Amino acid sequence: MPDDSSSRIVSALRTWIATAPPEAKLPSTRALVAQHSASPVTVQKALRTLMSQGVIETRPGVGTFVKTVHTARPNDYGWQTAALGAPGNRLQLPAALQSTSSDVIALHSGYPARELLPERLVHAAFTRAARTDAVVARPPTAGLPELRAWFAAELGASTPLGVTPPSASDVVIIPGSQTGLSTAFRALVGAGRPLLMESPTYWGAILAATQAGVRVVPVPTGVDGPDPDALEQAFAESGARAFYAQPTFASPTGAQWSPDLSERVLDIVRRHGAFLIEDDSAHDFGITAEPSPLAARDDGGHVVYLRSLTKVVSPSIRLAGLIARGPAHERILADTGAESMYVSGILQTVALDVVTQPAWRTHLRRLRTQLEARRDLLAHSLIEFAPRGHLDRIPRGGLNLWMRLRDDIDLEDVVHKCKLAGVIVGAGDDYFPAEPTGKFLRLNYAGSNAGEFPDAARTIGSVI
Q1: Which is more confident, 213 or 337?
Q2: Model pLDDT, residue 133
């Protein structure tokens, strides 16, 4: 009898099992061979099929039995309501963290597609790191000295004459920029105290501020950066001593501050005896402009600088450098030690290996070209196929476009209908720490399926 006849045996045994008591013992293989006039191979194949389906189980030396089925029942977690109490803040993760399948066009994520990463360098670095003590050694709380020196040298390369560049001792290695933001907000601001923040701004900063319990004071910003007069007023009225901002290729607007605006903001921060928490996570995503960190112009300890390697190296290497001077550095180091103790030594070793390879600069040049092509394709497609959406500015760097819609648009409906059509977009409301000032979509051009950007633009255009 051919092996495919095992399906007939499977069907017959299922009928028998349906009326058998739990843990009933099945006939022996010899008995089943005789009963079904089948070969031992065919019977064994049928039994393996039933085992893979979770219907039967084999007990070595005892026999094969009907598997007990555990009936699912609803659980009552009502007791937790009293134990937890009312939440201080309702944390909501934005659409940017949605997982998607490969058959959709994802314009919502904040991470570059795999083909934009230095995958060969990362694989080689892990291979080399696996042969070192990094796999077992505990790194210092502040991070590997060599990696701290690299972050300091990177910022120091932008430091003008007359300004003292940072040193390795000013750097703390942290497990990603999200952790760095939480650390900075706790250490430099504190729960219940005011923190100035651009509006709109990076959703992760809004989330970190909520977790840290700080009181956010929004400062209006746009494609050119924040309004310095509004910033001055916010400092004066709130008594805040810290301002969080992204001066280079901001998320979501893509703004890069002009030298004049940068100097005005630094003057305001210094005059109020405050900190500027500079998030430079898009440092490596310049397209037609170079990054110019404000931290490079300040040696008085006013600018606390955060630069992540997670997006540009690999999402699996969650790592960033946080640079602060004076007592602020000690507070940040203490908070880091209490929160995460230290960053994995092997991740630090791999990151340092990648960014110090000669091929790293080659990768960054290629990345710039790739991002420019993707940005232009998506922008031109939107202009052609979604003319009712408006792009105030084509950003000179970063990973996304910021498109404004008509005020009478139902944004939630737009996002939902685009998703039904296979296009995932980011709702602009997620990027406002206060009430949104308009209807916006944040559209990432660094994701997968770049060749489908025209189709995505057609969908967006038809929906809006």
Answers
A1: 213
A2: 86
The model's confidence at residue 98, banded by pLDDT at 50, 70 and 90, is low
Q: State the Cα–Cα distance between residues 284 and 401, nearest whole angstrom.
A: 17
Q: Are 231 and 265 in contact (CB under 8 A)?
A: yes
Place of tokens 């910033």: 231
Amino acid at residue number 124: A
Instruction: For tokens 């760095």, name the residue.
Output: 180
Q: Could you tell me the sign of the dihedral formed by the alpha carbons of 128, 130, 136, 140, in that order?
A: positive
Q: Could you count the other beta carbons within 10 Å of the beta carbon of residue 86?
A: 6
And the tokens for 250?
């901001």
- What is the distance between the alpha carbons of residues 251 and 202, in angstroms, rounded to a whole number? 5
pLDDT, tens digit (0-9, with 9 covering 90-100), for 13-44: 888 888 888 788 989 888 998 988 889 899 88
> What Å distances lie between residue 103 and 100, 416, 418, 419, CA to CA?
8, 17, 14, 12
User: Cβ contacts of residue 238 below 8 Å, gap of 6+?
Assistant: 194, 196, 217
**Closest to 199 measured CA to CA, from 405, 415, 424, 438:** 438
Residue 213 neighbours by CB distance under 10 Å: 15
Q: Measure the CA–CA gap between 212 and 185, rounded to whole angstroms.
A: 6
The secondary structure of residue 121, as a DSSP letter, is: H
Let me know: does 152 contact 173? Beta carbons within 8 Å: no
Q: How far apart are CA 238 and CA 208, in angstroms?
A: 20
Q: Which residue has the higher pLDDT, 338 or 257?
A: 257
pTM of the model: 0.81
Q: Would you call 451 helix, strand, or coil by DSSP?
A: helix
For 38, how many CA atoms within 13 A lie in the half-sphere containing its CB? 24
How large is the C-alpha radius of gyration of the chain? 29
Per-residue DSSP letter, 279: E
What is d(CA 240, CA 187) in angstroms, rounded to the nearest whole number? 14
Q: How confident is the model at residue 89 (pLDDT cuts 50, 70, 90)?
A: low
